[in-house]
Amino acid sequence: MDPKTGGPPNGINYITPFLNELNVETTIVCLDKTNELFIKNSTIKTVALSQNKTAWQYNSQLYNWLINNLINYDVVIVHGLWIYNNYAVAKAVNVLKKQIVGFKTKFYIFPHGMLDSYFQNNKKRLLKSIRNYFYWHLIENKNIKSANGIIYTSQGEMEIALKTFTNFKPKQNINLGYGVAVPKNVSNQNGIDDYFLFLGRYDQKKGIDTIINAYKKILQTNLTLLPKLIIAGPGKNDEYGKCIQKLVNESEELKNHIELKDMVLGDEKWNLIANAKAMILWSHQENFGISVAESLGMGVPVLLSKQVNIWNDIVLNNAGMANDDSEENLVKTIIKFCNLTELAYQEMCLNAKNTYTSLYHPIQYAKRLKFLFEE
């Protein structure tokens, strides 16, 4: 449940209070240490079974906990693929069905984009692709077949997942969308001039280098057009993050226009989002993009690559702009956005807020989840 690991933990934290409003009680079972601050500070009932020590994330306590406790729950949702938790839940459910007459706990898998063909086709992930290929045929495909269904965050994610691996035959493919909570009151001033914002981890998949190179190209021809760019997220001092720092620091123009920050949380995060001119997410693969929904919820337009699976919703509702994930396309998109009239920009801001309310508000998502549970 470490927030530094990305969207799934944040998504769970967002939706659980709204499920509670609908009288759906939630317990989080995670493979984290009990003394972690994000565990201690959580207001959600959480069972932390200590941290795993292997790439598979094997945990000796998980299976026994499931065998002893699953019967007390109507539904279990497993988040993610390729690790031990799926295997343990599928095994426990199958054992309990044989041991207990009338065992009715439903089992769903939430892949969070991990069935995207990007991960299998990326040459930089060759060894992991080979590993996943064999793991799919030996283990994961069986886990998926034993589940009541696979839950997706978008139509795009579901359509891609159906084509990635052979013999993919879940009992149900379910597109539920997603829901993200945003605060009601955030200061509309932070003392920073106009800026674009990237909010997410420093990762090659996120296309941060593409954003910076696009900025560099525009700066060579038009210094007055571009607002400042703020990049914030975990991983700044990891290998890719250091490459990004080097890319910025080797150019005086980029140093003057781009600020690199570590992960921001709480009021600082929401203040950065609310006061941004636009959010940029130029990922080479993105299942949903929680930062996109957060920005929309604050009335901030988004500039997306079409590799972000919800881009079509954004374009259809004129809540931002989208294009394929090349540097050239990003240059065109930024220039087009910067040349919007003030009236057109304000209309896009309003559309952003309305898109969030209609598609990504957590209470609507919670209602869809509850309906699925009760089917």
Can you describe this structure?
The protein folds into two domains: 3-176, Rossmann fold (3-Layer(aba) Sandwich), CATH 3.40.50; 195-360, Rossmann fold. Helix 3 (62-69) runs parallel beside helix 4 and helix 4 runs parallel beside helix 6. The longest helix has 21 residues, at 126-146. By secondary structure, it is α/β, with parallel strands linked by helices. It has 16 helices and twelve strands. Strands 9-8-7-10-11-12 form a six-stranded parallel sheet, sandwiched between helices. A four-stranded parallel sheet has the order 3-4-5-6. Strands 1-2 form a two-stranded parallel sheet. Helix 4 (84-99) links the parallel strand 3 and strand 4.
What is the topological layout?
Blueprint: H1 7-21, E1 28-30, H2 37-40, E2 46-48, H3 62-69, E3 75-79, H4 84-99, E4 106-110, H5 117-121, H6 126-146, E5 149-152, H7 155-164, E6 173-175, E7 195-199, H8 208-219, E8 228-232, H9 239-249, H10 252-257, E9 258-261, H11 266-274, E10 278-281, H12 290-297, E11 302-305, H13 311-316, E12 320-323, H14 327-338, H15 342-360, H16 362-374
Parallel strand pairs: 1-2, 3-4, 4-5, 5-6, 7-8, 7-10, 8-9, 10-11, 11-12
CATH architecture of the largest domain: 3-Layer(aba) Sandwich
What is the element string, with H for helices and E for strands?
Answer: HEHEHEHEHHEHEEHEHHEHEHEHEHHH
Q: How much strand?
A: 5-15%
Stated plainly, the CATH topology of the largest domain is called Rossmann fold
Shape: globular
Backbone CA Rg:
21 Å
Provide the number of structural domains: 2
Low-pLDDT runs: none
**How many DSSP helices?**
16
Q: What structural class do you assign from the helix and strand content? A: alpha/beta
Record the strand order, biggest sheet: 9-8-7-10-11-12
